[in-house]
Amino acid sequence: LFRVGHYGRPVIEERDWNLEISGLVQRPRSFTLPELRARRRRDVVFTLECAGNRGFSGFMGAVHNARWTGTPLASILEEAGVLSSGIEVVFWGSDEGEEEIRGNTITQNFARSMSIQDAMDSNLLLCYEVNGEPLPNAHGFPLRLIAPGWYGIANVKWLTRIEVRATRFMGRFMARDYVTLRQEEVGGESMWVETSVGRSRVNSVPARVTRSGGRYRIHGAAWGTAIERVEVHVDDGPWRLAILGEGQDSPYTWTHWHLDWNDSVPGEHTIISRATDIEGKVQPAPTDPAIANKRTYWESNGQVTRRIRTG
Ligand SMILES: Nc1nc2c(c(=O)[nH]1)N[C@H]1C(S)=C(S)[C@@H](COP(=O)(O)O)O[C@H]1N2
Ligand SMILES: [Mo]
Fold it and tell me: Which atom from ligand 1 is nearest to the alpha carbon of 50?
């Protein structure tokens, strides 16, 4: 599994740790790890991608697929009783770093937030295991949020506090970094819009080509949203429908796909894949305004062109 830590990698001793539920709740409380492990246990197989993946040269392959185990966040928030003045849930990590904000140098913890409605999604888990093992330190020991359907940044590691607030939360990773700048057409006029990275976008790549008895097969993966179909474009040919395999029954797990390429002639070829999700969203071409009019590198889910030489 790749790993990303913006403020290094804190080492937490289980005996020194607890999770606080605080802010605008009727019943603030804290949990030890054994208390969380004793609660209802649930698994999710989730393909987590860093929103910066493929965004700049040299940053590739920041996507992993694993089985995460933990307890549902929603029931913890329900038991705490969110007050009607609360609009946002902030997830605080124990990792911290120095930030310079308008001339002030301050120390700030990693944090991300979600609306109450998003945080109450029954698929969000507070996880203490990955692939059947205790969470490794690098992946957030002792506890991390797993938010299936969201980009990596939402999956806060080394969780220490979950806080309900009455205003939008504007930390570095909500409002300064992981902010996409894109030009949009609004009523025939162009305007620049900044949006905070949130739910993941439909994505796919052609991963490899195999040959067996002189016949070629193109293999790849698609993820980000619930995949409906994948099409493959070879050289100047038509878009052809790939066969979906493992993963196609889950909206959160990558879908493996393949296409038999029977009419290959020896030489150089280009291969492009494009995924479409069940809501009809199509993975954008590099010339699509969603990609072409985007200036920051996050959310680079454009179609990928691979080159191959066949013999
Ligand atoms: N506390 C904390 N959580 C964090 C981060 C971080 O820097 N600190 N990085 C986020 C980002 S940007 C990504 S892509 C994922 C990566 O998860 P992984 O390191 O388990 O692969 O963790 C997220 N959770
Ligand atoms: Mo990330």
Answer: 14
